[in-house]
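Narrative of activities, Objective 1.

The group set out to show that a structural description can be obtained from nothing but a protein's sequence at a throughput compatible with the screening campaign. Below is one input-output pair from the validation batch, recorded exactly as produced.
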Amino acid sequence: MRTNSSGHIIQLDGIRFIAIALVLVEHLFVEVNSVPVGATGVTIFFVLSGFLISRILLKSRDKNHDTPGGFKKYLSKFLIRRTIRIFPVYYLVILLLFIFNVPPVREKLGWLALYGTNIYMAVYKTWMGSMDHLWSLAVEEQVYLFFPFLIFFVPKNKLIPVLGIMGVLSILFRLYYFYTHQDFGIDDWIVTYVSTPACLDSFALGGLMAWLQVYKNDLFSKLFGKSWPVVLALAGWILLQIWSKSFDNRFNISFVVFDRTISSIFGFFLIGRAVMGYNGLMASFLENPVSIYLGKISYGLYLYHNFVFNHFHSGPMHPTVRLFRKIYQYVPDLKGSVVFEALVVMTLTVAVASFSWHFFEKPINALKDKYAK
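Output recorded for this entry:
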């Protein structure tokens, strides 16, 4: 396992970069892309999050379980660290969007403030404009509400069966919803995509990975010590996409029910191998300073990208749209170039996320060690 002096697993920043890149590719090339790579990117984030929070919680549990006030210390440390990392920039963005009256922030402020965007989408079977992507952050926050209790109170030798049941129930939820709704379409798919119960197989696999690393490190090393399982899992994901394209209806059983599970399995092996440490070209890519940096600011890249530009919701007076108009006045041949527009939006997104990281997120992150020792 390759770590820096603070114990940070180096190649995981590169994995974060891969995940955010998949999301950005889908959103920036929405006119020409038909493969749900963005959904796979989000799923990789879910598996990674499940691994990292479970790893932290398992180690904290073992340290505090049999000590006076152990649960309070265990829970408060986790919540304080998560709060410091996630809340400040999230609520800053919501505040700015509220001030500038970016729809539908003022109309849906309660849902946004309480991390309930995915619940709103599932209940009303609709998206939320430029706020669409915040559904995944809502899922993560909802998982953070019960995962600490699950890991602290379930005996460690019973945790794997519990995670297994959680994962199976997640698949069955999507399967049941798919078969009980005739003429299954995009409105129904929203429910099976953004609901927290529909995402738990990803977090369960992340939790399994953490359990193996903490308690069965020899088995973890054997399972993730080679790269061929990653290639095999990727091949499985590709075959699933081919199967999905064989249906006339885009919202078919492959896409609705199995895509997240197969993507989670791919993420499971991709991340586990990175924890052990890739070699060769993959190591060079994941440990490249650019990959590490973009992975480090991936939360900001994800949070800001839909506000920098959204193909469906950025109106004629949006600053990025106005910038494009100005560019096309001088270089009309660039108009209509998907690649050019994607490069511009990506550059702007990286600039905004970098500014946010260096002048807001990073200084606040430094408080974690002060208030959650």
